[in-house]
Amino acid sequence: MRIYEKENFGGQMNELMDDCDNIQDRYRISDCQSAHVMDGHWLLYEQPHFRGRMMYLRPGEYRSMRDMGMGPMDMRIGSIRRIMDSC
């Protein structure tokens, strides 16, 4: 999955292949405002270390927080976890 600092895939881009327990510390970005999920299913958490409110993303393009299902709420992304099959 690719995360972008600004809406519409703008600003700094980082590609994730696995869990990230603290977006700001690992990638040095101020915010995550858009995402492109190429493969897999992901959970985005409001706070570092997989805490706080959470949202689920499946493959697709998410040009804004609203596209991610957040509506007008003010939520920052603090950590991201990939959902893995347990079969």
UniProtKB/TrEMBL annotation:
<protein>
    <recommendedName>
        <fullName>Beta/gamma crystallin 'Greek key' domain-containing protein</fullName>
    </recommendedName>
</protein>
<dbReference type="GO" id="GO:0005212">
    <property type="term" value="F:structural constituent of eye lens"/>
</dbReference>
<dbReference type="Pfam" id="PF00030">
    <property type="entry name" value="Crystall"/>
</dbReference>
<comment type="similarity">
    <text>Belongs to the beta/gamma-crystallin family.</text>
</comment>
<dbReference type="InterPro" id="IPR011024">
    <property type="entry name" value="G_crystallin-like"/>
</dbReference>
<dbReference type="GO" id="GO:0002088">
    <property type="term" value="P:lens development in camera-type eye"/>
</dbReference>
<comment type="function">
    <text>Crystallins are the dominant structural components of the vertebrate eye lens.</text>
</comment>
<feature type="domain" description="Beta/gamma crystallin 'Greek key'">
    <location>
        <begin position="40"/>
        <end position="84"/>
    </location>
</feature>
<dbReference type="InterPro" id="IPR050252">
    <property type="entry name" value="Beta/Gamma-Crystallin"/>
</dbReference>
<dbReference type="InterPro" id="IPR001064">
    <property type="entry name" value="Beta/gamma_crystallin"/>
</dbReference>
<dbReference type="GO" id="GO:0007601">
    <property type="term" value="P:visual perception"/>
</dbReference>
<keyword id="KW-0273">Eye lens protein</keyword>
<keyword id="KW-0677">Repeat</keyword>
